[in-house]
Each structure stands twice: as C-alpha cells, then as structure tokens.
Amino acid sequence: MSIPKYKLSSIQVLYGDILGLAVDELTIAAGGLHVLVGSNGSGKSTLLGILAFLNKPEHGEISFDGVPVDWESGECSLLRKRVTLLHQNPYMFSGTVAANVAFGLVARGIGKEHTRSVVRESLERVGLPGFEQRNAKRLSGGETRRVALARALACNSEVLLLDEPLTHVDRASAALLEDLVATLASGGITVVMSSHDERLGSRLGGKVVRLEDGRLDPIAGQSPFNEFSRCTRRDNANS
Amino acid sequence: MSLVESLHMALVLIFAGDRDVVSAIATSLEVAIWSIVFASLVGVPVGIAVALGNFPLKRVIRVMLNSLMAMPTVVVGLLVYGFLSRQGPLGSLGLLFTPKAIIIGQAILATPIIANYSLGAIQVADERILPTARTLGASNLQCFFQLVCEVRFGIVAAIIAGFGRVISEVGVAMMLGGNIHLYTRTMTTAIALETSKGDFAFGLALGVILMMISLAVNVFLTLVQEGRHA
After folding, report:
1. Hey, of A56, A82, A91, which one would you mutate to test binding to chain B, going by the most B CBs within 10 A of its CB?
2. What is the pTM of this model?
3. Pick among 1.20.1180.10, 3.40.50.300, 3.40.5.10, 1.10.3720.10: CATH of B3-229
4. Chain B: closest CA distance from residue A103 (Å)
5. Nearest to B135 among A84, A93, A108 (CB)
6. CB of A52 closer than 8 Å to CB of A85
7. Mean pLDDT by 10 residues, chain B (230 residues)
8. How far does the CA of residue A138 sit from the closest CA of chain B (Å)?
9. Contact B149/A89, CB-based, under 8 Å?
C-alpha cells in the first residue's frame, strides 16, 4: 500500500468554546482530486488551513508523506514550499500581476529567466495571457482569482489546496478552472478543493469528503478516509 | 511687521545667504535627519515586533509607547543631560553641547512616535498578507519584508510624523545643544533667543522658514498618502 500524502489523527480546532473542526481520522491519498463539500461554517477552510500548514490544530497529529509534522520547528516553513493554498478571497500584493505570480518563485530562489517564462505560462493556463504588466490591485474579482490561481500554479507544488475557487466566477471561467483542476489532478498533483457544489466531485471524477458542523460525514463508496473513522463515529453513535 | 513682510525678510535672509540663518537651518536639518535615521532603525522594528508578537508584556509596552509619545521634550533633555554631563555615566565622551547630543535626545523623542505609528500601520494591514506570503513558500524573513513593503506608506507616514516632531522641538536642542552660535544653534533655539533679545523680526523670519519646512513635509506626506490610493 502506498504512503498517503496526508494522514490526520484526532484533529481538533476550537474557536473559543465553539468547535471549528473535529476529525478522528482522515487519509488523503497522493495524487488525484479530493473535493471537500459542506455548507458555510462547516470547517472546510479550517481544514485547508491545517493541510496548508498555516494553522496548527489545538489537538491531534498530522503526517505528510508518512512523516509526522513538527509544528514547533522550522519544518513547516519547508513543508509550505511543497503545498500551496489558494485562499477563498485571495490577496494581491501591491505591484504588477507578473510580480505577484513570480512571488513563490522568488521565494524559492528561482532565476529571473526561468521565472519570466513560468509567469507567462501560468497566466496562459488561467486564460490571462498578456496580463503581466497590469496593476494587481486593479483587477476585477474574477481576474484576481485567476491571477491568484496562476500564482499558486507557478509554485509547482506537490499539493494544491483550493478554497472554493469556483465561487463568484462566470460560467466560462468556471469551465476553464474545472478543466485545469482535472488536468492537474490527472497529472499527479494532489488537489484538494472545497466547494458548496456536491456534484462537483462526481463531475470531475474526484473523491468527496463531506463536512458538517466541523465533523466529517463520509459519503459511501467515495470517501478517501479509512474505516477507522466511520467505525469510531458509529460506535459513538451507538453508545 | 506683517506676515508678508516677515516672509519677504525671510526670503531676503535666505537668498542673501545670511550666515546665521543658513547655519541654523543646516544644523536643524542635520540633527533632525540623523535623529530620524536612528529613531527609524529602532522604532520601525519595535513597532512591527509589538504588532506581530504575542508575549506577556505586550499590553504594558503598548501603554508605555503611548505614554512616551507625549513625553515633554525638556524631560527628555533633562534625562539625557544627566547621562552626558561631566558627572554622568557617559560624561567622559564629551558629547554634551554638541550636535551629537541633540541627535541622541531627538532620536529618543522620535522613537516612540515612529514605533507607535508603525504599530498602527501593521495593525490595520490586510490580515491576508502573511498567510498569502507563507503559503507561497516565503520564509519568515521574506514574509517580514513583504509585510513592510505592503504597509510602506504607513511606515513612511510614521517616519515623517517623527521628523515633524523633532524639527519643531526646542527643549532637547536647547538643553543638550546649548544654543552655541554657528555650532548647535537650531532654528527653534535661534527663534527663542532672538525673540528674547527683542529681535522679533529675525525670529519671525526663522519661524516662517520653519513653517515652510513643515509645510513641505506635510505636502510630501499628502503626496505619499495619495500615492497609496492611486
């Protein structure tokens, strides 16, 4: 059996007294598309923040490629170079679109020539060729999301986490993004994407994880997480 | 003498290259610029550290910074005087009544102002900046520089506010500089001296020049603020 990309155990996140997320056990396989579905406040963004190594959970453990994550050391900084999160409401740094898309490459110390070609290719992939010199602060909402996706793609990470990337985008952009996500997932990248659309997983051929009130709610036959979680929850329900 | 006549006299004194006026302007600008350089080197990182840090004494430090902003200039002058006077712990350096002493005092005066304004700039910064930089693989140092870059207009405003404070103060310059002719005499100490001697016109002329410098600084600040929203 291959080593999963992520393995989460007994994860708990609290916002004061309110439960943000409670995951007994969750395994995400390497490669392919995984879709987190759930209503607002169900814990999708919280889970993505943990998978991106941005937010440390109050309790629990997480393994990445079979190695337990040490949140206290500088290890997370290195792991973040392998995982990129596209936020639900992405922020554009001041400056040009090219500078924004190049940000992750500059952070990785990539040379200027290669950076320039990657920036051009990334913008072409999201359907925004020739946008390099535009002011990143003056883009429309849809353009901002696509530039942010190009910025994430340019990092060429092993894992791409997308927080509701299809919200507030027009139909043509949504179709383009769906094709792009499907291509990335079939190309070996682990894509974890959150959405309100429950049919998205089957439409793109991804595995679906349902979240409700911060807890996992497996969908039979489609869930990527293991039997342990379901047994534990069933036992708890029966007790 | 009317304001127009004072302005006319000020311009005459400047363009005539009056030695006393030029010396006072040069000394004022020299000590103010150097003190702001040192205050910025300390104040900006302190402000950012307090804004981003999560430590037990954070609230106490914030209250202290707020209190220090309103510290009277003569009190700063008095404290530094105690250190630099012959009997003081730094008396052997012979800095008292030199431009360096004024720079030290003014830097102490400006540091809490710059720190506080920098802190405010960070606090109102978009909370998505750091997570975005982090998830794109930036190191802690790269995140820090990106954050400073994003709030640079606020930082510049903090530095200019500090400059406005020191260029117009008189207590530190008088107590630590000694108002020595053509050496430590600044515009503000010259105004105080000349007015007390009855040369109201000369004092008023220097006052007009000081106002013009303050106006120029504020115009620059406005342009910076407008650039932020452009």
Report:
1. A91
2. 0.80
3. 1.10.3720.10
4. 7
5. A84
6. yes
7. 72 83 93 97 94 90 92 94 94 95 97 96 94 95 93 92 93 96 95 86 83 87 70
8. 10
9. no
